[in-house]
Structures are given as C-alpha cells and as structure tokens.
Design a protein that fits this description.
alpha+beta; Outer membrane efflux proteins (OEP); 12 helices; 4 strands; elongated
Amino acid sequence: MLCLQGCVAVGPDYVPPDNNPPHGWQAHQSSASLNDDESQRLSHWWEQLDDPILTELIAEAVANNWDIREAEARIREARARRGSVAADRWPVITGGSSVRQTRIDPPQTPGSNTRLYDAGLDARWELGLFGGKRRALEAATADWQASQLDHADLLVSITAEVALNYIDLRAFQTRLAITRRNLASQADTLDIASWRQQAGLTTQVDVEQARQNLEQTRAQIPALVTARQQALNRLATLLGGYPGELTDRLSTTRPIPTATLDLAIGVPAEALRRRPDIRAAERRLAAQTALIGVATAARYPDMTLVGSVGVESLASRELFSSNTFLTSAIADLGLTLFDAGRLRRNIEIQSAAESQALNRYESAIRLALEEVENGLVAYAQEQLRRHSLASATDAAELAAELVRRQYGSGLVDFQRVLDAERSVLTLQDQLATSDGQITANLIRLYKALGGGWTPLHPGTTAQLDRRDPNHE
C-alpha cells in the first residue's frame, strides 16, 4: 500500500504549454539574446537613468511600500498552506489520559463503585491510495510559487510607478521654470509696449494685448503647481509615507533624467520567461491541473489506518505494569457508491477551471508581446518628435529675439511680437513634455520586458521551477 501511495496518481500530469513566440520584435531590428550583464542591467534598469535620488526612492519603495508588504504576507500564507497540505500526507498521532469514576446508588454488589485509569496513543493515517494528497501538494506548491511571482510582478509595477511619477515631477518642475522664464520675458515686452505708448509711438491696444499675453501665461502656473504636488504626494504614498512628506526633499528643480539609446531587449522568448505575471499564470495553470487529479482521486477507494496503544488499570500505581497493555488496529477501506454525480461534476468543474487558466495564460503572453511592441514604437517615435521640436524651439527663440528688436525699432507691429512669444512658450513646453515622455516610454518599455526583479537570484522561483513538486 505504501508503494501504491507513492506511485499512483490519477488525473492528468501537468505539461507546460508550448508557446511559440516570434523570433524577433516587429518594431526592433535586434534579435540577440541577453548576456548576463544585460540581464542584470534590465533587472536594475533605473540605474541607467543616472539619478541617485531616483535610485534612493525606488529602494525605499521596495522596502516600505504597503502593497509589497501585503504580497510578502501572501507568500508566507501560501507557504504555510503548502506546509499544511504536505503534513496531511503523514499520520496524525495523539496522546491522552483519563480517570473514569463509576458509582451505582444504592450499591448492588461489591465493586459498584470503581475508578478506572487509562493512558495511550492514537494514530490515524489516510493513505490517499490514488494520489489525491499528492496532487493536492502539487497544487499547493504551484500556488506558493505563483504567490512569489506575484510579489515579483508587484516589484516590476512599483519600481516603474515610482520612476514614472518621479519623471512627471521633474517634467512639471521644468515646465514651471519655462513658464516663469517666459513670464519674465513677457513682462519685459509689456514694459516696452508701455514705454512706446507713453512716447506716443503706439496705442493703448498694444499695451493691453501685452498684458493679456502676460496673464494668459501666468494662468498656466497654478495647474502646473497642482500637477507637481500631486506627483509628490503619489511618490510619498508609493514609498509608504504620507502625502506631503517629500515636498522639502524634492522641491529643488532638477533636469529630467535621460538614458542612453542602447537598450537591453533580447528576443520575445526571453521577455516571456522573464515576465513574472506570465510565469505566475503558468504556475496557476499547473495548480489547476493538479486539482483535477484531486477531484478524480475522490472517485476511487481510499484507505484509512487507525491504531492505538495504551494502558488501563483500576489502580494508578499499576497503570504501567505489563498486565495493563492494550493495542488495537483497524484498516478502513471506503468507496463512494452513489452521490448523484457530485464527484463527476466536480471533475468537470476543475477541468473547466483549467481551461480558463490556460486561456488566461495565453492571453497574458499576447498582452505582454503587445506591450513590448507598443513600447518600442512609442519610444522610437517620441525621439523623432523630440528632434523636430528641438529644431522648432531653436528657430522660435531666435525669431522671437529678432521680432522684439524690430518692434523696439518700430519695424514690425505688436502682433508679430505676441505670436513669436506664444510660439516660444508653446514649443518650449512641448519640448520639456517630450523629454519627459521619452524617459517615461523607456520606463514602460522596461516594465513590459519584465525589468525590475532578478529571476535568477537565490531563493526565487527560478530554483523552485527545477524542484520536484512533491518535495516537502
């Protein structure tokens, strides 16, 4: 029976799905595999942005974020559940002792009043002859592995979220600085218009138009300040703190971080192996496959061994003498003969759930490939847009300077000045936004590639994947 328990397991044996991703990326020419250095770089992609403050913020978020702490608690819960399932494969031994007093009133015979002492051990072992317990352990092991991968997926999301909000913060700070510089320039233009009006060289219309342009620019500042503070508050929350805690620490305006154009991408198959959400979906598919075996085993006979050993005596001093030793053993073989199809329906339920898990896994693969392709396109095209915006901004700044000089000399009307100043502000703002968008697109691309955790680090699920699922 012990041999049967170790060898027989009804239900399907899990076979990982065979997915065949494309050999290369549609939006990227490189199809080279990642070497160890590039894989490490992808695991800590934020270091390429060369911003020590961002690196510090991500480290604090990983240590203090409440969602990450919750995911760690779920790992401990899943590990404990697996341990409970593993323990269910072994006998349960209990011990106890009692004193029983018997009294008959009125006494009928000698010995009507007796006291009986006993102590002993009881053992119960459900063998799981057809592998139900083994399949349950496979399912619990896969669930434990999935919880670890959920934690890794959360690391990917949190690190990207911190970086994106940090980029937003620096972009809003840059745009605020641009707006305030243009505000000062437009104030100078208003002064020029006022002086010319006082000298009789122009009318009050130019002055009011200059004031209108100035106030329109000033009206943009509150919205930018609000967005900047919202980015600060979101960062504080991601770091496990309270809104407003980072205001003093990050109030100084700094440039938007940028990275080199050399990307650690690899091939699609590597992205699928790296993405923890895909690996978690695969582990849940494995768990659901094992639950089919659990449901199937319930239709087969099962045996329970029950045994006890103990001592019993009328006197406590004789309790452990050789004459009081008692033993018993029972082998109970049970089989469900009629249940109106309940067990068969349970197998169908678990099989349908397995189909759902397979569909979720396949869907996760295609969504991951879509995210990477979209990220590659967005990153490349935003760089082209930024190049054109930079050229347009240089031209607009030069044109604005020339127009101001010509207006001061009375060579052009004031409308030319207004148009030039508005163009400068618009293009400078778009250029700053594009700078932030390029880095944000890079962050989203690295997130899509599964960057932000180290799958080959000791203690992660890379080792669990190679373990015997029945190992306890």
